[in-house]
Amino acid sequence: MERFCFALDLVDDEKLIAEYEHWHKAENGWPEIRKSILDAHITAMEIYRTGNRLFMIMEVTDEYSVEQKAKMDAANPKVQEWEQLMWKFQQALPWAKPGEKWLATKLIFQL
């Protein structure tokens, strides 16, 4: 079992942030997206927000592969539709390279 943490910003607009949170409530999430996450060997996922900054924590099995997840997502029209919808609310971190969304964070302390 391994854990990954990522960060991303939302557009700093209260209405858009509220709509983004709406889409992430369990009753509003798309079942195809949940399935794609589980199919990629992600066993747990949480997203936290402070202001317009998001932090995502994922726990994965040993079978998880960043590259394989990217391939699966690229081949899944529903995931692409979801990503396009989410990009309305999201913005890349200032230090992101072109095309990057969620950026991996670096563990700097552990107790």
UniProtKB/TrEMBL annotation:
<dbReference type="InterPro" id="IPR052996">
    <property type="entry name" value="Carb_Metab_Mutarotase"/>
</dbReference>
<dbReference type="InterPro" id="IPR011008">
    <property type="entry name" value="Dimeric_a/b-barrel"/>
</dbReference>
<dbReference type="InterPro" id="IPR008000">
    <property type="entry name" value="Rham/fucose_mutarotase"/>
</dbReference>
<dbReference type="Pfam" id="PF05336">
    <property type="entry name" value="rhaM"/>
</dbReference>
<protein>
    <submittedName>
        <fullName>L-rhamnose mutarotase</fullName>
    </submittedName>
</protein>
